[in-house]
Amino acid sequence: xxxxxxxxxxxxxxxxxxxxxxxxxxxxxxxxxxxxxxxxxxxxxxxxxxxxxxxxxxxxxxxxxxxxxxxxxxxxxxxxxxxxxxxxxxxxxxxxxxxxxxxxxxxxxxxxxxxxxxxxxxxxxxxxxxxxxxxxxxxxxxxxxxxxxxxxxxxxxxxxxxxxxxxxxxxxxxxxxxxxxxxxxxxxxxxxxxxxxxxxxxxxxxxxxxxxxxxxxxxxxxxxxxxxxxxxxxxxxxxxxxxxxxxxxxxxxxxxxxxxxxx
Length: 263
Hints:
Shape: globular
Mean pLDDT: 91
Distance between the termini: 41 Å
Radius of gyration: 18 Å
CATH class: Alpha Beta
Order of helices and strands: EEHEHHEEHEEHHHEHEHHHH
CATH superfamily: 2-enoyl-CoA Hydratase, Chain A, domain 1
Strand content: 5-15%
Largest sheet: 6 strands, mixed
Strand order of the largest sheet: 1-2-3-4-6-9
CATH architecture: Alpha-Beta Complex
Structural class: alpha/beta
Helix content: 40-55%
């Protein structure tokens, strides 16, 4: 396991910790790959009956590492040559959605952009009082990944999901609890203990029944995410070629308000 993502198993509960605190746990390519591998490992490890995903303080996950992923030059060969190209969903997203064991997000700080997406992939979210959430993609001239389209409307309702996606505005932990995004808000120092207590109550139940229970919930509530996830990635890659996206990245790096022109 990479040092960017830590793995620990105790009493049937796997804890996956994003571990780039100096970058507020922003995900670069290495971290995305390590996160995918950790989530796949949770599925195949018979000692794991429940999964907790969290971040090393001070953040849960600030999303993509803008400097390494968005601002880095892309070779021409990596750019989509045609609007009919079909892309696979984000591998780490699918690893989270296909994890057949109950998953709890212990959101210990800001969950921004793909960090909020990661929290959405969990079955249950518990937030520290220091947590905040934002679907920041619109601020970068992009659309969200599959989580915002696939999970968010079911969790908070279509109108609230539209507001969060269209504005990109952040909400604090109290508002997240009010709209049903998180199960509870815990004092920061008690967050992991609360998550582990809940995970322990889940993990003592019969493993096969737990997995089928989760599959039944997925089928009844969400459906199949693969087509939607592929469309989201295709659209993101197309939008990454626009002037508005480049302005969104530049304004973030230059710490100024962006000016968008629809190009």
